[in-house]
Amino acid sequence: MNLPLGVVQSFGFRLTVTLCVSMGLLVSSGFAQERDSLPGVSLGLVYENQPQPALAIQPFTGRFGGADLVDDVEVIVGRDLRNSDRFEVMDSIPAGLVGDVVDYTLWDRLGAVWLITGQVEGAGEGYILILELHDVVYGQSVERGRFRIPDEADSDFRMAVHRASDELVRWATGDPGMAASRIAFTMTDNQGNKDIYVIDSDGENLDRITNYRDLTLSPTWSPDGNKVAFTSYKSELPRIYELDLRTGEENMLPEVRGGGDYITPTYHPDGTTLAFSVTGNARSGIFTYNVERNCCLVFLSGGRWYDLSPTYSPDGQWMAFNTNRFGDAVPQIMLMPSQGGDAETLSPYEYGGRGYFTAPDWSPVGDMVAFHGSISRGTYHILVASVSNDGRRLNQLTWEGNNEDPSWAPDGRHLAFVGERRWGFGLFVVDVATGRLRPLLAGRRVGLPDWSPALSTGR
Amino acid sequence: MIVRRFFIAVTAATLVVGSCGGDPPPPPPAPPGPDMDSLRAYQDSVQATEEEARRLAAEEAARRAEEAARERARQAAERTLVQMVFFDYDMSEIRDDAASALRAKVDILRASPQVQLRIEGHADDRGSTEYNLALGNRRAVAVRDFLTGFGLSESRFSVVSFGEERPLESGSDESAWSRNRRGQFVITAGENAINPGN
Hints:
The complex is a heterodimer of chains A (459) and B (198).
Chain A: H1 5-10, E1 18-19, H2 31-35, E2 45-46, E3 54-57, E4 61-63, H3 67-83, E5 88-89, H4 104-109, E6 114-122, E7 127-135, E8 140-149, H5 157-173, E9 182-188, E10 194-200, E11 207-208, E12 216-221, E13 227-232, E14 239-244, E15 250-252, E16 261-267, E17 273-279, E18 284-290, E19 295-303, E20 307-312, E21 318-323, E22 332-337, E23 344-345, E24 356-362, E25 368-374, E26 380-386, E27 393-396, E28 402-408, E29 414-421, E30 424-431, E31 437-442, E32 446-451
Parallel strand pairs in A: 3-5, 3-6, 4-6
Antiparallel strand pairs in A: 1-2, 6-7, 7-8, 9-10, 9-32, 10-11, 12-13, 13-14, 14-15, 16-17, 17-18, 18-19, 20-21, 21-22, 22-23, 24-25, 25-26, 26-27, 28-29, 29-30, 30-31
Helix pairs in contact in A: 3-5
Chain B: H1 2-18, H2 36-82, E1 85-86, H3 96-111, E2 116-122, H4 129-148, E3 157-163, H5 174-180, E4 182-189
Parallel strand pairs in B: 2-3
Antiparallel strand pairs in B: 1-4, 2-4
Helix pairs in contact in B: 2-3
C-alpha cells in the first residue's frame, strides 16, 4: 500500500516513538500473557527517554491597563506549555527576583533551556500580548510575536491566549501545538439521554451544544471548526445532523431509500463531504454526501456486513473504518482508498482468531491510526497503529481500567479518550510520545470524544 | 285498601241495624271475583317479558364473554407479538428460544395482515458505543429476516438499533447483560386488528 508520506513529512511530523521489539524491555509482568492473544504483533512502547528541555516563564508584565489580566494570561500560557508535554515547565519565580531585563546567566544557573517573557498592553479595544522565546543556552532571543487578545469577559479570551501558546510551541519545536482547540463529546443525564458538550483542551469552558434530551451521539468537527455533525434520535429514528456553531442553524442529511440507521459521521479533510454509515438498509455500509452542494450520495463499501466509523487520512486519499465482515464478535479496523476499493486489515486479525478492535481515528498530521481493542477479553485499551511504508506497528498506550474511543488532537501527538476507572468515567488526554496521562473531565458519564482542529477564531 | 275498609264498615253497620229486627236484608252481592282469564294473560305476559329479558341478558352475557375472550386472545396475541427475544454475547444469531418466540409471532402476523412491527435491536454496554449501534442493528435485521423467511412481507417491518443506550437492566453482570442483549417489538400499525389466528 502506498501511503502519501510526503504530507506527513511536510508537516514536520517528528514523533519519536521507539518500538519495543524485545519483550524483556517491558515493564508489565502480566504483559507476556496478554501478548499471547495477539500473535505476531509487537505490542508495547518505550517512550522517548531523553529529558524534555526545561522551560522557564519569567513573570509577565503589564502596561497601559494590561496589568489587570497579566496574571491570568501567564497562568493560561504556563498551563498550555505544560499540557503540550514538550517541556519541563519550571516552577514560576516571584516577580521580585527578576527584573524586566532578561538575565540569561540567572536562568542558565536555574537550569532553563528555554525562557518565555511576556507583556500585556492595553490597546484601545482589547489588549496586545507580546511573547518572546529565548534560548537560554545561547543567550539570545529566538522569536518574538504580538497577539491580539480581547477583554477577559469576551468568550474568545482564553482561546486567543491558547493560540499565542501554540505559536510558542511552534517556535520552540517546529511542530503545531493543540491548546487552541476543543473537544466535543457526549454526556449522559440521569434519564440515560445523551447530549453533545464541548470543553477546551485545558479542561475549561464546559459547554452544552445540543439540548434534545434524547440520544445524540458521535459528534465530529468540520475541518474549519465551525460545525459539528452528529447522530441524533430526536426525530425518533437515528439521523445525521450538521450544526453550525456560529449561527445555530441545523440541517439533517437526506435519507437513502429504504431507511436504516444513520450513524458515525466524519468530515473529509476538505470539509465538503461527510462520510457516514447506514445500517439496516438493503444497502448497508459507508456512504458519502456532499454537504457543500447538498447532493451526491455515494455508496463506498459494505454489503451483507456493516462497515462503520469511517475516518480519513489527512490528505483525504485513504479511509480507515470499522467492519464486522469477519463476524459480529471480531470487529476489525480496515483501510481502503477513500473513493472505495479493495480494503486491507489494519488491526491484528488472524482468520478464525479472536480480537475486538473498533473506533478508529486517523491522525490529522501523520501516518497513524488510533483505535481501541480488547487485549484480554473484556478489557479495552487504546492502541495506535503506524501505517507508514516501513511496516505496520501497533502500540498500546493505556494499561489501567478500560479505555475507549480515542481522538487525535490537531498536533497529532495527543489523544483524548474515555477512561473507565474504579471511581467512574472520565475524559483523559494521553501524550503518545511520552505516555503522560492527564484527566480532562473526571467523574462524568462521558463518551465518544472528538478533538477539534486548531481553532483559528473563537465562536 | 280504603275501599275494603269501607266495605267492612258497611257490613258491620248492616249487622248492627239487622239485630234490631225487621226483614233481613237481601244478602249483599258477592264481591266481584278476579277475572281469571285476564289475570292469567297478565301473568303470562309478565313471564314472557321476564323470559325475554333473561334470554337477552344471557345472550348479552354470552356476547360479552365471547368479546372478553376475543379481547383476551387479542391481548395474548399482542403480548406474543411484543415478547422480547434475547441474544448471546457479541452475536446476532437467532437462538433456539428466540426462534420459538418468533415462530409464535409468525402465525399471528399471518392472520393479522394490517399489523406492522418495529424491531428494536439492543446490545449490552460492553464493547464500543458505535460498534454496539451496528451490533444492535444486526440483531434487529436478524429478527426481521427470520420473520420474512416465513413469507411475511418485509414492508411490514422496520428496524432500528439503540445500541447499548437503552438497557432493560442497569447492572454490570451477566444476568443484566443477558437481558440487555435483546430484540424488542413495537406495534406501529393495526394494533386493533390483531387476529390471534388459529
